[in-house]
Amino acid sequence: MAPLLPFNVAVISIVLLLTCANLVSCNNGRRVGDPLEAELSGFSVPLEHSFELDDVAKFQSRGSLLLKTGREPSVSLTQNQLSEDDRSKLKEVAAVDGLYRIRVPRVFLQADRQTEWQMDGYLTAFVRACAMVESHLSDVITLHTDVSGYLIGVSIVTLPGACRGAEVEDEVDLEVFNTTLSIMAPVNAPGPETALFLERMEQESEKKGKNPQEQKSFFAKYWMYIVPLVLFLMMSGAQDQSGGGAGGGAANGGGR
Amino acid sequence: MAKLILLLLKLCILFFAVHAVFEDQVGKFDWRQQYVGKVRFSHFDTQLQSSKKVLVATESNVFAALNSRTGELFWRHVDKTGPEGNIDALLHHAQDAVLVVGNGRMLRSWDINVGGLNWEMLLDTGSFQSACLVGQQGTVKHVAVLKKTVISVHYLSNGHQKWVENLPESETVDYQTVYSGGNGQVFVLGIVPHSHITIVVYSMEDGEIIKQVSVEVSWLSNIPASCAVVGQGMLMCVDSTTMSLNTLDLHQQLQMTQIPLQSLGLEVDPDFHPSLVSHQPNPAQKPLSEFFLQLGPERYLLLQLNNGQIVTLRDFKPALLASFATTGEKTVAAVMSPKNKTACSINLFSADTGRRLLDTTLIFTVDPSGGKPERLHVQAFLKKDDSVGYRVMVQTEDHALTFIQQPGRVMWTREEALSDVVTMEMVDLPLTGTQAELEGEFGKKAAISLDGLLSMVLKRLSSQLIMLQAWIAHLWKLFYDARKPRSQVKNEVSIENLSRDEFNLQKMMVMVTSSGKLFGIDSKTGGILWKHYLDNVPKNAAFKLMVQRTTAHFPHPPQCTLLIKDKDTGLATLHVFNPIFGRKSQVTPPALPQPILQSLLLPFMDQDYAKVLLLVDDQYKVSAFPSTKNVLQQLQEMASSIFFFLVDSSQGRLSGYRLRTDLSTEQVWEVVVPTEVQKIVTVKGKRPNEHVHSQGRVMGDRSVLYKYLNPNLLAVVTESTDVHQERSFIGILLIDGVTGRIIHEAVQRKARGPVHVVHSENWVVYEYWSTKSRRNEFSVIELYEGMELYNSTVFSSLDRPHAPQVLQQSYIFPSSISTMEATLTEKGITSRHLLIGLPSGGILSLPKMFLDPRRPEIISEQSREENLIPYAPELIIRTEWFINYNQTVGRVRGIHTAPSGLESTCLVVAYGLDIYQTRVYPSKQFDVLKDDYDYMLISSVLFALFFATMISKRLAEVKLLNRAWR
Predict the structure, then answer these.
(1) Is residue B119 part of a domain?
(2) What is the residue range of the signal peptide feature (chain B) (predicted)?
(3) Whole-complex ipTM
(4) Single pTM value for the model
(5) CA torsion, points B559, B563, B564, B566, in degrees to nearest 10?
(6) Is the torsion defined by CA of A181, B780, B682, B548 positive or negative?
């Protein structure tokens, strides 16, 4: 029996270790602005929200955004569950058509050092609290950066976005956020496409060069249509030159 | 390349029928008014007794000749804007007018008869101080230009430099004036402030310094402001601290002799800075020994310097303005004195004696809706009996020029304030009395139950009687006019007979100018129907004009509100007026003690049908105008759905606010664009009166692509702070003004401003300068919801979770542009055009069809079905797209478009230095019959067909009857 004992101890210690590890990871998820994470070429900033009956903003922590800096910034989110008090408050706010606001601090995503990213001030956005409730906390948060990596705006929409006055009976639906998060950098606006156009032009002229039939002049090709047309015009005279304008215009106007 | 262009041209021709103005339509639907700006210098052409020219050089850098009989322009030269084209001096001698331009950069001579350029000389650098004509032995052949460190003399005939000399001790001495008395010497006067005057005398022949003296003067700091040369080279200066006149003989230069004004028995206003006006009729001769001394805002003295003694010839009190004029050998002084509240009298006095000349009184009626007289320009001439006659041109504070002949006949008036229009609106004209009567009857539906049936019947009968009466009067007028020859029938538009025409094509243009003068202009003829001068407008004011009540709410008068805001302090005032008559409204606007950040016109109205204006002050408190109980109640009800935004470009901050029921506000969103990287230059919303007829576009495969029509969308344009051509960029942000959601964010790299933006429907068009390719480029962004609409009945920014599809395409434009606007029509059915003001003075009507990001690069069956033009990188300017044919509009600054009653027609006003009004038909006149429509042919065919049917019917009947009998 004796040799079994140390094995037992080992199993127990492993179990203990595992529970410890679990506890640590749980803590990690809940703590905000953990300095440990900032070192992994990114940092976390708090995401805060506020919903009050009197609409005076009192921001509380909702979770934390882990921002990865670099050429292609990415973002991930860990967030808390709504407490029972908060759930009932959110429903009350929704009932009086209050606002659900979020805010993130202004940060600079390209900073090398940790101290540089923080700037003063926050970026805020809102949705109607009822939309938040009726969508069962399914929201889409988008962070916008500018060319050099400054965070310039945040937006939040819920899916579905409408307030239809549907009652949310089940409190459980309002417990966990179902958030889709993305970060958007500005797109490059296109300039005039000259190269492609010229290429196409060249291709067309080449095609014409290959096919000698095409090289015939306009008149040589279509004389059989043009001659009767000219004759017809000469016959009818030039009296109604301006007559076509109105008709053409109407067609033009309808075409948009 | 030539082939490419040819192909493009072919394509264009295939897609569009040519539309341009016919020769006989010139001036039929359009008019242009040309202006010169606020006059800085003016000279009458005195070569010939019969000459009709007035030369004016203005603060808008324009040099022009006006016809003194009619006020029209003979010719006009428009120079560059800004300090580069600034006119520093205008010298006039015989046929030549010499201008110093651009702080002494250019010297130009113009032939005043035809307005042609004689010569132009580029001068050395150095800031301009003064210039004068130099005469010798009775003839004027040279012009002297004094700069900070150098004096140069040029020949008047060809501009060549005769000599140029550096000024001695120019580091310490501030040279300010140059003077020549016609004796072969040029005097340059400089000053070391509060120490001494330096006089340098140059020989006219070779520029040699003849003499250089300095005279102790401790009090003087600015020669042109307080001194003048009088008589035989006597420098006369007035000292406002010791209240004395100081004389200095420029030829002997001993020292200044002081003559206290008290010794002449004169009292001076202690707060007033006295000034001197002297007169040199001919640059080849010495100036007059008589001069004006202005002692107070309403007091002038005519003094004479006689052997070192000063003699008072006449004391003018009260006198507003005084001026000298010379004709032949005679010099006269004209003095304007106030007569009563509405009129001033101008009298002529002999300059050498101070005696009043008989029968020279001229009455100038001060326009109560204008400004005070500011300057007096006198044109004197000799009558047949050798007495002196004169005409005057009075310049008033509101930049107007009035030309008056004896005994007070106004020959013409030029409203030069219109050369600087800041903002404008087009207001519908009111209905005629009879139309209004009918409207009034149907408008009072609520009163039916009270008045009872009988009174209603009576009212109806009476109104119909009035209409009958008006109709008979109209018929009578037609009959009466028909007998008169065509030329005598004139449709004079005056403020009394203003009424809306059938298609609402004639409107009232309410124009706000930077001088603070408001104008009401008839859009059909261009005639000024009313004007109103606001005399308390600060120099750097920003204006916003809003139409609170249109003419549609008879009997309530229409109402416009002008918000005037001082850009420095932010303090604002409101001016409420009737846009049809220009009269100030009875409604008293609220006093605004706090600086105003934002104003917004809400779409709902109070019980008197006036739209509610909200003003947000710097404490983020909101005040409403009108603020009746009804309005406040409505505001409380709607508060939670009223959102507004503020832009602080200095901090790059865009923030959104929501109104609360107690009229305070709360911030709901915030977007911050760091100012280190880019700065916000323009924020453009959509026009509130814009209608979009079709919600989507039909594609080639018969499916529908729905437009993203967000009325709250803002287009924000930013420019990079880095101006290096490789790194500079412009940014386009599309932000929802209610939720602050960034819908789209794009950067145009290697580009810089100035950026011109038009934002309408579901598209944004902007123009920028590409630093990489060194050319102007257009870019268009279009937003689509996709193949399905999220909510087709109503649009709410709060409930539109899906981001729209964004399409963008760019094009090369062969010209730079001054301004850009989109056409606007009543229902939005007509296709849109972009109206582009070019620096050349043309206004281009570019079909929006060419700026369509769905233009395909490879033509497919579907794109052909959709009528899309194949993509071509270059937009071509076609000459028939110029809507103003040869009527160039100088320095276009803005284009205003307004819908008319006809769906096909859009009214356009382009303003800048000139004003041009016309109509455009973006989809041709599809709802109008042509002028030469053949009514006779159509009706005769109709009648013929009618009779033919009648006859054939009859014949058929007969035939049937016959068959029945058989």
Answers:
(1) no
(2) 1-20
(3) 0.77
(4) 0.84
(5) 170
(6) negative
